């Protein structure tokens, strides 16, 4: 079904607030003096204005009324052979504009009298202004480029400030930022000096003020003429004649495609190739190639593959974020996307989950429960109204991932794109989320596409997609994998039985059938010998098969083949029949309801905007009228006093006529000067707000930066770490993140820290790196209290791989070693240890350009590069904050081997969710709600069924 865009009826649009003609009738004097705005001005003096304080719109200015008038005229115009929007606009509003236009032409004509008399001076100054404006435009362009780069770098620093502090790179990035700022200031100075020349010419030629105003737009290189306006009108006219499709479908075709997706599929790709959009002229290289997928509605779909295989890119392609190079893609319904690196809104937990939706208490509580957030919220001061900082800085990685998942679930979308949401949480929380959220009732009727390495999630999936190097290698369900395994085992067993049967029978009938077997073998084709093992042939040839017909093996093979074929057909028919029973949801009804809601909200917001604009216009006219009256009064007063003085009506003589004329000439421009003074005063006050905001940030608390003390360049020597009764909280109003924690890590050992998300694992590292102050207790590294070490010096002596991998824009060499202390040979050796040497070589080597936030690499590859950066530091203490969460199991094992072999002699502190990560370590720490509840050797604790670690391990393997 289709309908015109401009099709609302008069009764469909709610009228906005209007003036009551009886209660708000104004006299002619009130209208001419704009007296109605006086009350608004009085309110504005004592308080900040609200929408209720603004002037109500007159009836003929109400957006709803104007919409109805224009709709009526447009319907009449649509009946014509060639409807034209400009005619409809003229019939609706043309006559009032014509009447005002006559007065406007007369007023503008008077304004041109003075400039026309100065034509020759204009020609002289025009060339000067043009030359200066070109210089200003050139300086502005260069300045804006440097400003954009500075803002980008500032955003990069703010987004990863915690990571930068842990690396001790604040001064390095600050230096880079200041270099960009100096270039920006250089071009800004050029522009300011040129602006000063402009002010000089403006002040030296006040009589040309009007002409400079009229010509400024053209002199700066822009052009606005009648043709441009009419072209825009024609485009708008064509737009209003377009139709709106009622189908909630999205079909993307690079050319003329005829592939139509079945209605029971959430997404279909037909030979689709995708690439990331590029702003430069470089040829686009495809990331996903020849994708042929049919993703059914209501299914749980698992996407698996190695790091960099294209899992995240597949979700982005379905989301429409990648450029389609070839083939077609079809998707339908609303989409919710949970990225691998969750985005968190600066606000309360409830704001993050609702995200603009109406509050439904039952769905809200169920969403919190299935995402395992209920316990975390109960421990927070303020519950779900607790304020979360930008990007969720006061939440753990697992809490951020679950919060992003809760937001998506609450939206109630048709299609969910989940990018490895289970990797950031520990095993039993991941199992809870999988069973109660992803497979639970809130999402059971939706389509879920999950990129994961979780074995339990893969086994629970209705469909499994295996990706390798941007291509689909295999698709099927987890049940298919189980059935296939059973078939393989049965086939192997039957083959073994058949081989022994033939061998036994051959021994009995060897003599009787020898001749016949020989004849058959002699006449057998060559392909038989190629396909049959020689050992089997020798068995047949030497066996006594007198009582067994020689055609029996052949017939048995045919029988087995036919049986398997019939069984496969039965399975396929049953599989297809189940999906044929699914019904297509009535999306068009939902769309109609949403469209009605949108039209109502649109009219409401337009009315508020028009009221604001109308009040601003009336206030400007109110001020202009009073300034003109003041100016007229002053000029009249000067003239009357001069006449009275010259006629000796007053005892005071005002001087010669020349002085009187001088006074009158100076009194004449007082109106414009008063207006300009008030405008510049208001603008200056507004601009000073920026200064006030900047000064506020100059008073923010600073990290304690002690004076640099002489430290042994080889400290820490062994990497021994001691926590003594450490209590730490992120804010004074929040509960402690660490509660009286005491433990010792011997130098050169590898220690794992495990616990539920939010238990305080990352807080251990925050305290060690002095990202948050310790409330009580102290921390020793090789016997030295870390508070006695300057904070930047401390962080520079420790190596870390943060939970959120950080790569900045620049070369890969700068990312690995920003301080330039390592040579290329060492870098390549470390990259090989971290198993990313091949990817770096294929991409172009150490000089390749890394995009902002490292988007040119997958999340797993980013973590591998961060590990390489940490190993290049050659520190005695290496801290790993769940560096294997976003990589597949094979890569995780390689990483563990690298850490075990390449970090000998170093103290390695690993925060982990996977039990397998800590099994081979020397010691483990188990945290619960900020407390250390258990410590010991993992193998010894695993053997003790009463230990916390044993229970944790059992829960993760269930």
UniProtKB/TrEMBL annotation:
Reactions catalysed: ATP + H2O + xenobioticSide 1 = ADP + phosphate + xenobioticSide 2
Segment forming the signal sequence: none
Domain ABC transporter: 260-494, 721-954
Principal location listed in the UniProt entry: membrane
Record bears the keyword Phosphoprotein: no
InterPro entries named among the record's database cross-references: AAA+_ATPase, ABC1_TM_dom, ABC1_TM_sf, ABC_transporter-like_ATP-bd, ABC_transporter-like_CS, ABC_transporter_C-like, P-loop_NTPase
One term of GO molecular function: ABC-type xenobiotic transporter activity
One of the record's GO cellular component terms: membrane
PROSITE patterns hit by this protein: ABC_TM1F (PS50929), ABC_TRANSPORTER_1 (PS00211), ABC_TRANSPORTER_2 (PS50893)
Enzyme Commission identifier(s): 7.6.2.2
Pfam families associated with the record: ABC_membrane, ABC_tran
Keywords linked to the UniProt accession: ATP-binding, Membrane, Nucleotide-binding, Repeat, Transmembrane, Transmembrane helix, Transport
Cellular location(s): Membrane
SMART domains assigned to the protein according to its UniProt record, in alphabetical order: AAA
Highest taxon of the lineage: Eukaryota
Similarity comment text for this entry: Belongs to the ABC transporter superfamily. ABCC family. Conjugate transporter (TC 3.A.1.208) subfamily.
Name of the molecule in the record: ABC-type xenobiotic transporter
Naturally occurring in which organism (per UniProt): Linum tenue
